[in-house]
Amino acid sequence: MTDSPFGECTYKISSGITLKVPKIILNSVRTRTVTLYLKYCEETQNADILSERTYMRLLEAIEPNVRKSMKGLDNFAADGSQAFDNLKSVLHVSLDSEVPDHCGRFGLSSEENSFCSKCTHTHHLSCNDCEALTTTLKLIEDAADSITYTNQEQQDDTKYIIVQGIKTIIEWKKHIVRSVNQDRARGKVLDTLQPNEALIERDWAMKFLPLQYRESQSNWFAKRGLSWHVSVITFQEKEGKNSLTVLHIFDTAATQDAVTSNAILKDLLHHVNSTNNNVDTLYLRSDNAGCYHSSYGILSVTALNDNPYNIKVNRMDFSDPQGGKSICDRKAAHVKACIRRYVNEGNNVITAIEFKSAVEKTMKKC
C-alpha cells in the first residue's frame, strides 16, 4: 500500500464522524492486502484487530487505485521499470549485516574518525544480486573499451554516457541507504516519545496558485503564488499519539530563508504550549533545505530555547537531499483538496485571508 501525494477521500462511519484519508495505491488485490495486514498483526502480537470482512469494507469505501499490469509498452519503458524493481530487490539494508553492501553502519561510515562507526562483525559474506550489479557495470565499461569507434568524438561521448550512468546508479543506491538511516531516526523518536516531549516536522509547501470559481483567461496567466509553510506536531498522550497541523500563510512575498523559518518555529512553541503545556522537550525534523540546515538556521535554535514556555529543542534531524517527502506533504494534500472543494462551491481563494477561511470552513480537524 502506497500513499498518493495528492487527493483524498471522505469516509463517514456509523457514529456520524467523517474521516478524511489520502488517496492510496494498492500494490496487490484487496484480499491479499487484508491477509498481509492480519499476518503483520499476528507477528507483532497486536490483538486490537477487526474482522476480515470489516477491513474489506474499509478498502471498498476508500476506493483505492489498484496497481495493474500493462501490455503493449515500448521496450524502453518496460525495461526501465523492470530495472528499478530489480535494483530495489537487491537492497536490504540493516545496521549489522555480514554482507558489506547490506551493512548500513559500514556503508554510512566516513574515513574520518569523527564520522566513523566500527562494526562488531566481519564482512565475509556476499550477495549474488549485488555482485551481479557490480559485475554488469564493469562488463559494460570493458565492452566500451574493446569496440572500435568511427572517430574520437564518438568514443568520448560513449564513455562519458557510460561513466555518468554508472555514477548515477551508485549515487542512487547511496541515496536510498542514507534515506533508510534518516527514516530510522524518525521512527526511533516516535517509538520512544514521552508525554513531556513532542516531534515537530516542518516543510515549505509548493506555492499556492490563486483559484477563482470563474476565472478569465487573462487572470489564468502569470499568477503569483502564495507562500505557505506546513508543520505537524506529534504528541504522546494517554490514549496514544496525536498530531496537530499548523499552517502559516503569507499574503506578501515571503522569503523562504532561515530567518522566516525560525520565526515560524518560534510561533510553533506557542502552539505547542497552548495544546499541551506539559511539553518541555522538542525534537525537530525537516528536509535538507538551506533554510533549515544552514549555520544560521541551526545556531538560532539555541536562542529560541530561551522562551517563556521553558521548552527546549533537544535534537534536530534532516532527511537526505531529495528524500524529504513526509507527513507534511500528505497534510498539504488534504488542505489543497479542501480548498479545491471550497472553490467549487462558488468561492475564490486569492489572498491569505481567503486561504485561511477556506481551510477553516472545510476542515474540521487536520
From TrEMBL:
Descriptive protein name: Uncharacterized protein
Organism: Mytilus galloprovincialis
